[in-house]
């Protein structure tokens, strides 16, 4: 998939949510704005990762070290088909 | 909190739709691959655990009426511990919403529309789900009642048309390799879908007072029907394909492909494709609603719709960047999800249940 295609997908996604919220959302408190900004920043990070396709550190890289080994041990113990 | 309320019956419908929606298409194949002919036993075991989780959340709902999981968690464990456990809960909720939609995307790309990029399906489902969540729980309950009837009717049609092809002899022997495969299947179905009963700890307070007394019975019946439906679809899959059912990811889809009636009704697999999309859309909407409510209450935000769109966008992007391949994704769902969901859902619930037994609810 070309980078231009990925960027277009991201523009559509980001543009869509910002447009929808701009049209429908009335006043937001400071706390809401702050949290909204944090979530958008996370989206921006993942969007850049998707656009340049460099496999940056992502959510699964965060969670797999925590649960991966135990999950594999349980799965291997119960698996009789291997 | 959102002022919309639903009846106990509508909550039961939401619960059934949530538990059955995408499970009926995604569960049978991989489950039979793990548990072989004992797959229905695995569903009974994990379903029993689902009943225990349901009992836990109904007990806490009775003790703390009108309060969601976040609210009574704060009261019981304090804000600090609630925040610590919420990290895992939110992480798995994000994973869930991304995973449900990813399943649809992978299904469509592998089975029906092979040339279409996966983001086309993911984006559309997230967009419609997000707008549905913004409409509110009452709207969701009313709409999902109709779509659930449609989906159930379609699946019953497929299973009934296949009756002449069933071979009950394929069901035996039940446990040729002992109990371990059955436990392996139960481990998988615990992670998807039975641990997800927990999500309704955030939705039970939305039941109106008039029908609150009927809520426990309605929820138990909904879960019971879900277990029966999943068992029936699994058993029917084994009776058609035998042990080969375990090698098919979407066995109900394959079943719909091969059944025919009087040479008139043939190749009706698009009905199953439609059912999967509808079921997954409903499940995504409920998950996104719960995630938004959870995050909003955790951060003390009154207007619970402010974060719906960014959370939906996170789910969409997670599906694009976190999943390296369908094989890797399957491994994560079958092996990692049960452990992750236990930490995210069951552990905090157990802790709250223990604390609540010693602590009186404050006035």
What's the helix-strand series of chain A?
A: HHH
Radius of gyration of chain B: 20 Å
- Secondary structure tally: strands of chain A: 0
Task: Enumerate how many helices of chain B there are, as a single number.
Answer: 14
In this structure, how is the largest beta sheet of chain A organized? none
- Poorly predicted segments of chain A: none
CATH class of chain B: Mainly Alpha
Pick out the low-confidence regions of chain B. none
CATH topology of chain B: Amino acid/polyamine transporter I
How many helices of chain A? 3
In oligomeric terms, what are we looking at?
heterodimer
Helix content of chain A: over 70%
Number of domains of chain B: 1
Number of strands of chain B: 2
Secondary-structure arrangement, i.e. CATH architecture of chain B = Up-down Bundle
Mean pLDDT of chain B: 91
> Which value, in Å, is the CA radius of gyration of chain A?
19 Å
**Terminal residue distance of chain B:** 20 Å
Protein name (chain B): Spore germination protein KB
Subcellular location (chain B): Membrane
Membrane topology (chain B): Multi-pass membrane protein
Keywords (chain B): Germination, Membrane, Transmembrane, Transmembrane helix, Transport
């Amino acid at each position: 998939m070309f980078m231009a295609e990925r960027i277009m997908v991201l523009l559509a996604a980001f543009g869509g949510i910002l447009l929808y919220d701009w049209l429908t959302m009335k006043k937001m408190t400071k706390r809401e704005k702050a949290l909204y900004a944090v979530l958008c920043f996370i989206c921006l990070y993942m969007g850049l990762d998707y656009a340049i396709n460099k496999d940056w550190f992502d959510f699964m890289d965060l969670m797999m070290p925590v649960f991966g080994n135990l999950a594999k041990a349980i799965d291997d113990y119960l698996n009789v088909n291997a | 909190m959102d002022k919309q309320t639903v009846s106990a019956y509508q909550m039961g419908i939401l619960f059934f739709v949530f538990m059955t929606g995408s499970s009926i298409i995604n569960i049978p194949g991989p489950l039979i691959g793990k548990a072989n002919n004992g797959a229905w036993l695995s569903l009974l075991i994990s379903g029993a655990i689902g009943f225990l989780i349901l009992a836990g959340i109904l007990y806490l709902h009775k003790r703390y009426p009108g309060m969601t999981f976040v609210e009574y968690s704060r009261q019981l464990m304090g804000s600090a511990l609630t925040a610590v456990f919420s990290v895992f809960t939110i992480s798995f909720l994000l994973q869930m919403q991304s995973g449900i939609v990813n399943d649809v995307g992978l299904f469509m790309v592998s089975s029906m529309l092979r040339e279409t990029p996966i983001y086309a399906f993911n984006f559309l489902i997230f967009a419609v789900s997000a707008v549905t969540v913004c409409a509110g729980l009452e709207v969701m309950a009313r709409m999902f009642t109709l779509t659930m009837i449609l989906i159930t009717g379609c699946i019953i049609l497929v299973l009934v048309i296949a009756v002449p092809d069933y071979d009950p002899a394929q069901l035996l022997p039940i446990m040729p390799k002992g109990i371990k495969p059955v436990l392996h299947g139960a481990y998988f179905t615990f992670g998807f879908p039975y641990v997800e009963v927990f999500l309704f700890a955030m939705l039970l307070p939305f039941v109106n007072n008039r029908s609150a007394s009927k809520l426990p019975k309605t929820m138990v019946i909904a879960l019971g029907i879900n277990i029966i439906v999943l068992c029936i679809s699994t058993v029917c899959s084994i009776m058609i394909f035998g042990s080969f059912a375990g090698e098919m990811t979407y066995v109900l889809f394959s079943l719909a492909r091969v059944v025919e009636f009087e040479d008139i009704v043939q190749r009706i697999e698009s009905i199953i494709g439609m059912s999967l999309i509808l079921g997954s859309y409903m499940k995504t909407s409920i998950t996104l609603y719960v995630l938004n409510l959870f995050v909003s209450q955790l951060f003390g935000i009154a207007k619970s719709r402010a974060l719906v769109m960014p959370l939906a966008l996170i789910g969409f992007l997670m599906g694009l960047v976190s999943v390296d391949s369908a094989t890797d994704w399957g491994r994560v769902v079958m092996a990692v999800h049960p452990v992750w969901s236990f930490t995210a859902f069951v552990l905090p619930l157990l802790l709250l249940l223990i604390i609540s037994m010693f602590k009186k609810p404050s006035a």
